User: Fold these one by one.
Assistant:
Number 1:
Amino acid sequence: MPGASGRVLVVDDNKVIRQLIKVNLELEGFEVVTANDGAECLDVVHRVRPDVITLDVVMPRLDGFGTVAQLRADPRTRHVPVAIVSACTQHEVEAGIEAGVEAFLAKPFEPAELVQVVRRLVERKDRREWKGGTPAGRGRG
């Protein structure tokens, strides 16, 4: 792949899933940083400055929705695209949309679908930055 595809912060308390996501994204040229849960995500997000965050919902210390709420409340991370990678129940999807999540990927997922979702979010973020604007509203998957 020519050039870097973007930086992704992968947040999941399951080490195997974290590694699976990391490897699949790295194979497609993404730079990947991982965090064990939402609290660690908030600790590293400003240092890492990701283009996209993938986020599990059920995690210790701080779950996915609590993490999204704090990311959206911070002007520095308000517009970082978030993809929920979880069971994606109807409740999770509704709560995620309300929280400002841009995409959903149900576990178990196909690696190609993961890459496609992340690439779409990186491209969407790049277009917003190129225009110098910010999103007009909350995105829908």
Number 2:
Amino acid sequence: MEEFASDLEKTELGKVQIAPEVLEVIAGMAAAEVEGVASMSGGFVGEIAERLGRKNIARGVRVEVGSREAAVDVSIIVKYGHRIPDVARDIQESVRNGIESMTGLSVVEVNVHIVDVELKAEEKAPPAAAVEEYQRVR
């Protein structure tokens, strides 16, 4: 399959096309909503762009679109303690349902790439007792 805007419908008024970027946003939102997904992984460049303030909902998602079908690759970071096969299966179902219901395209595959596990945040130590201020110089 090639990456191009799909021709979904031709009418007397013209045709409807959906760009691959639209499918990437749909897939990214569907995957991010799954329990156990800590975050999407966009790689080094995506991390830098996000730190510069550019929010990218399609981060970590790559889509190939044909005229009637789509294939999706999703890269995620899983929260520690969640069963990876269950999270991956839920992502596959969520992404497929989201794309098919919103676009009418048939999703032939959803490949889930687990790139990391987010460990539980360490409990922060309680603040040290306030140090009494004293005058060093009189």
Number 3:
Amino acid sequence: MKYRQLGNSALSISEIRLGSWLTYGGGVEQQNAQACIHKAFEVGINFIDTANVYAQGGAESFLGEVLQGTERESYVLATKVCFSHVSH
């Protein structure tokens, strides 16, 4: 796996990230989703992407559960916020 420094930070992230948009917290059975996370770590992926609206919050909840017990310094978890109900 190749890694890049994230901006001016000390973070080194994998060039390939693991996304959770249509998968975790609803689209994929939990056992398969957990296996996917474990395989990503096994091949060196340390950058995980999610957002508050993926599976109506289910992706973030799933990742919180499956990452328990994983050394926090071993991965970068990037999340985004969507305000889809904001009035203009």
Number 4:
Amino acid sequence: MELLLPELDRRKTQTAVEAALEKYRIYKTIAFEEREVMVTASYTERFHGPTNVTGDSTARTAIYNVDVQRARQAYCDTIDFIVSRLSEKERVLVCERYLKDDDVFDYKVYNHVFDPPVSKDTYTKIRTRAFYKMALALSDRGLINVEPLSVSRKSRQKLGKDERKFIL
């Protein structure tokens, strides 16, 4: 049995993985605001009919507060696990560039973070490999869809030699 890995469009893959990492960064930096239950009586006029539906706003609020917070934590744990499975250089690149601050740029990472510094082309190769691995891992966990990212055989044949190098 031969395992065939999908060929992914580099730019679409980079966009999808960067969106997942941005969501992670937002979840980590912005505190979760819990909803509160309104316990005071409302003095607005309401016209009710016999709907036979009961509502428990306290239960809905409690469920929301627990479920959303748990989902955010599970998402962050999943991204942390996926990043931890990358090679050392890939992990350093993803952590320093995408998981920490917003104002970190590529040139800062490949000139100042890597020891010794690497060239722009080497940095791009490392990032491309890391994003490919992360896209497959995120796809396995159902966080992104790989189908729109994959390159069909017909579209690959239409590409010239210069354009093929942008495909993973």
